[in-house]
Design goal:
Helix content: 55-70%
Structural class: mainly alpha
Oligomer: single chain
Radius of gyration: 31 Å
Number of strands: 2
Order of helices and strands: HHHHHHHHEE
Strand order of the largest sheet: 1-2
């Protein structure tokens, strides 16, 4: 029943197709399930299997109907996975096209080089779209950082990666962390600092200094 509902939802955009107009609904539901449950391609197979020519449906009309059905079903599935009604397909498109190429090689009715060439062209376009999108995002972030620097020209204690200046308290915190990391000394107490590692997760016997809490899962000073 759930499969029937998804098939019906996916085909809503083809309400004027000759498949919808001429094929009885009970037969069309089975046709839809065959299209959605089978691998990519197989259009001629299902066209002959269901005898659609006898209903006055041309193969071209069926092909357009089936392709549209699969595309809408794939889009609906992607929106369901992302939880977004308007998913950004740019980043996902290369993966979808790559899957289509694999299906074309494995299951297509035709092995014409032009079909694969078109898919490869789509794949290159999809990759270029991702590249341009990421480049635009990087340029926008760079511009935002420069704008933050312009608004706060004085940065006595340096700047963060996003361009905003460090406050005095933040500077002292990073300074203390840097000294502890590099020299193994806590500036507040003057004690030695131990950094646990996979090779040496615990301090050596007799250690009286400080174990880095963030490295030791909450450990504090060792008495």
């Amino acid at each position: 029943m759930e499969g029937d509902e998804k098939a019906q939802q996916a085909v809503e955009g083809d309400s004027r197709s000759s498949v919808v107009e001429r094929v009885p609904e009970s037969i069309r539901r089975m046709v839809d399930e065959s299209i959605l449950e089978s691998p990519s391609g197989g259009y001629k197979k299902w066209y002959r299997h269901w005898g659609l020519e006898g209903y006055g449906v041309s193969f071209t009309a069926f092909y357009m109907y089936a392709r549209g059905l699969r595309q809408r079903a794939a889009a609906a599935h992607l929106r369901e996975m992302t939880g977004e009604p308007q998913a950004d397909f740019t980043e996902r498109l290369p993966g979808l096209v790559a899957q289509r190429i694999a299906e074309q090689l494995a299951y297509a009715d035709s092995d014409r080089p032009i079909d694969l060439q078109r898919l490869l062209g789509c794949y290159r376009i999809a990759l270029d779209a991702v590249r341009r999108k990421r480049l635009a995002e990087a340029e926008a972030e760079k511009a935002a950082i420069e704008e933050r620097k312009r608004r706060t020209p004085v940065a006595r204690y340096g700047r963060k990666e996003d361009g905003t200046p460090y406050t005095h308290a933040e500077f002292l915190k990073t300074l203390h962390e840097a000294v502890a990391d590099i020299y193994g000394v806590d500036l507040d107490t003057g004690q030695e600092v131990f950094h646990p590692t996979p090779e040496q997760p615990t301090p050596p016997p007799g250690f009286k200094g400080i174990v880095r809490a963030e490295d030791a899962g909450g450990a504090g000073c060792v008495e």
